User: Fold these one by one.
Assistant:
Number 1:
Amino acid sequence: MRFGVVGSGFSGAVIGRGLAEAGHDVTVFDSRPHVAGNCHTERDAETGVMVHMYGPHIFHTSDERVWEYVNRYGEMVPYDHRVKTTVGGKVYSLPISLHTINQLFDTALTPDEARDRIAQEADESIGEPANFEEQALRFIGRTLYEAFFYGYTRKQWGVHPRQLPASVLKRLPVRFTYADSYFSHPHQAIPRDGYTAIVERILDHERIQVRLSHHFVAADRTPFDHVVWTGPLDEWFGHEHGRLGYRTLDFEPYRADGDSLGCPVMNFGDYEVPYTRITEHKNFAPWESHERTICFKEYSRACSEGDIPYYPIRLADDRALLDRYLDAARSERGVTFVGRLGTYRYLDMDVTIGEALAAVDGILAAVASSDAIPAFFVDPA
């Protein structure tokens, strides 16, 4: 069969490679002049630093199949990610840990004492939290919420935390130890040569053709027996029901001699500070040495036509619109929707790769049994 794969990020690359290795001809399209999507990395000409061009990407996983897969295409160097935040003119450790709690309350609490303190802070009058703010107030109280979540969340999402679902905060842990590693997965790493080099190797197969700077639309599907679409779900349908909500990011770079932050990521929790964070990219490759540095101030805003969509908003008010697109997708023939944009979900890299590998398995099984290839291999609802 001839497959058209739209998007050369991890979803498209992994699926394209799997189909090519099974003997199918694959053409991978990308509207940008490079592969790897938002994971794209390249050397900064002035400083020599490897830059994550669309914001930092830290690879972390407990999925052994995914971990083995990425190591097949590049050297993954162990990397322990740590994040700090500036609030009210002071620097704190994230995620919230015993250290953060003692910093904020100017105490020296033990783990059990800290649990008791947070329990006293929590608003137990809130039964089942209906939104982000209530979730925070119910479980960590107003002091921690206002210091570390209120301002940052408003900037990141562009709405009041009361407009966000409670589930957003469930992904943010509170630790009663001094462990300050941002992630807890057994495998945490960054590729020595950057993510783009890994994706290029994945796509390096005799049955794969890559066409960059090509904006594929549904009408381009004619030469293919099946299309794998990793672009925005609503774009496939020409936004006929309206535009789904996404957030996009703007990056303001600056370069300097020496070091600037002293850490990879510094969040800024105060709402009055217009950017959400500053990232210093040489700290994502601590095995390298650079005399100069490059940093990026990061601003979050609503995604408009022509912008790069980074992550779906998925507010409750968008539910009806999303359902219309999901119904349309399930009725579509000859196309499979995958990935962060194609399924309108926030996905970490390891989940993206895992779902792409599962999609390859599903597509090949359908082809072998002469069944129709499904529109989705996961339920994006």
Note: The two ends are 30 Å apart (CA to CA).
Number 2:
Amino acid sequence: MRVLAASDLHLDGAAADALISAAGAADLVIVAGDLADAHEGLAGLAARLEPVAARTVMVPGNNETLEALRAATSATVLHGQAVVRGGVTVAGIGGGIPPLPPQPWGSWDLSEDTAGALLDGIGTADILVSHSPPAGLGDNHAKLGHIGSVAVKAAMLRLAPRLCVFGHVHDCWGAGGTLGPTEWRNLGPAPVWFDL
């Protein structure tokens, strides 16, 4: 399976167009949150991605809510759920985990306990999609330090997916590696290819 993935488009039309252009060769497209910017502009960017929505799985970021994203797209939107695509189980969780310091625009965040409860309901995953990074992996924010999620990392270790993709921490876009059997990557808005 050829997987194309990106995160944190933040209303970037050129990044959306690049994703659509590359998606012709993809079996599965993943968007790991933050299409919008401070809860603005979601509908327009989501509409721009509709040509590939049938093959797309998304999670909400902290710049849009679950309800807003589901209302804006026909793509599959996961939050504490999994779906099977082409024999591959994709699980996902959205939002900022743990919560960021208060933002004037109202970041959509989850506590570690809430995220952990949602992730505990997932029994298996070949791909884990999270907006927030697992703690200690691609999560070093220039001003706030390491802001990854303990709950996401625990789920990654428990589920041992082949791939874990995320975004959220712009300072670490492109960072990646492996932990046990899992390849992980902080995506960013440029399309990234994976072969499963």
Note: The radius of gyration is 15 Å.
Number 3:
Amino acid sequence: MQISAKTDYAIRALLNLAAHEPELVKVDTIVREQGLPRKFVEAILGELRRAQIVRSQRGADGGYALARPASEITLGSVIRAVDGPLAEVRGLRPNETEYTGVAEHLPEVWVAVRSSLRRVLDEVTLSQVLSGKLPAHIKKLVQEPDAWLPR
């Protein structure tokens, strides 16, 4: 899985909002504290607002805040809001793929990949990332001997 800059920036911006809850946070604060490009962050926050993950308030005292508690916002929901489905194969969802011959069982692998992504991304919330209190099965994955090794 390739995690796009858009997803990375969206999650970092949301973590910034979660850290300042319940205060409204200005875009300049997010940009400064996370070292992100302003125009990109503004566009991402617009998408997150349309997805009802953040709310905004205009005016001198305005800014952005989470639309619901950080404990209710999963990383998977953020990825879907800014980048679409967690797993796609040539623009299709894994369960929509169909092959014949030697590749006939490949859709099962694609579905398993999506399932494994869901087991991580749909079970980790912003508040867990912020606090470092990740679910036990996530910590176990991180502690596997080759987890941090590139391949």
Note: The beta strands are 54-57, 63-66.
Number 4:
Amino acid sequence: MRVLLIEDEQGIAKPLAKILEKNGLPTDSVYDGLSGYIQAQKEIYDVIILDLMLPEMDGIEVLKRIRNADIHTPVLVLTAKDTLDDKIYGLEIGADDYMSKPFYPTEVVARVRALARRKDNRIHDIDQLSFEDIALDCVNATIVVAGKPESLTAKESHILELLMKNAGNVISKDHLLDSVWGVDSEATENTVEIYIHYLRKKLENSERAKIVTSRGLGYSLRSL
């Protein structure tokens, strides 16, 4: 679970991010619309909190571009504009929920959790993934490799899930770092290499698939 907060008023953004974190919702904050749009394209977030009055690119434009890019992450709009027409317009162009300023941070937390649950209900049909002779249970972090069960750590499971969903395509170390550890993490490319080593050990019984290194680019799960 990870939240992207796009809010230029740091007096609002920083306390809100702390409250979200305190409530078990890891949050990355950016302070202008263009940076927010670039960050949203990474598609590593479960919910986006978006202010409308932003520098560089306003929130309406950010929202339009997110949806035009076929990014379906739930968006909670925060705005000083509270007329019915403003709310209707925001919902029509792709917002999932709408809150007017000032707001109670605890209500934001509740709205974010509700949006995340809504998203989970849409995607839980992919709790089980398979590729060649590897089967992954994403919920319980377990795999079966050539008929042999094996347990994974949460991060190993997340990495393998990304590789399986993108089988045959190279996933960069930067993308793995952002997706698995978060953009504010102190984890390094060496950390990714260590976890890929762990995964390779757990997949070594596979006769039909392996993790391939593309030097300077990243990793991919491929058929043998």
Note: The CA atoms of residues 33 and 61 lie 8 Å apart.
